[in-house]
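# nightly structure sweep
# worker-07 picked up a monomer target from the shared queue
# config: single-sequence mode, recycle default, output format = structure tokens
# input follows
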Amino acid sequence: MKKGTTFGELMIVLLIVSASLIIFLRLSVDYLRSLVFARELFILNNILYSKYQFLIAYRNKSLESSFSPTGISSAMPSFNFNCINFSNGTFLTSSGQCRETVGNLGITYRISNSTLSNNTGIKVVIDGSLLSTLGRISASLSGILTPWHPNIR
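# output follows
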């Protein structure tokens, strides 16, 4: 009897090794895709949250004293003031789609608002999206600006 491996045994081993390699590569690609999606969604959410925080600060500052967009635009040159309209420090909306670039990601967002019943506050909604290699990623952030300031009442 001969000692050694036959061609059939080698083919079975090759089949098992190649199947496990394909499974490993597929899991690696899915993992990397998940990481890229999580990173881009994190960036989009941070941009939308920073816009919301800026709207709160801008509204509060405009209620406390006479305040113009030109005064703060020199301190914050990256913020697109043409994108947001303020009226009496309480109304804010964006005219069309606003755009911002972070690295190689082009982010578009839109700010809308609606007054709650009994003038208990203003509901602000910021919808944003970005186009990445994985497709379009969208997110929405909403909050309520309450009339806490004496100038509002």
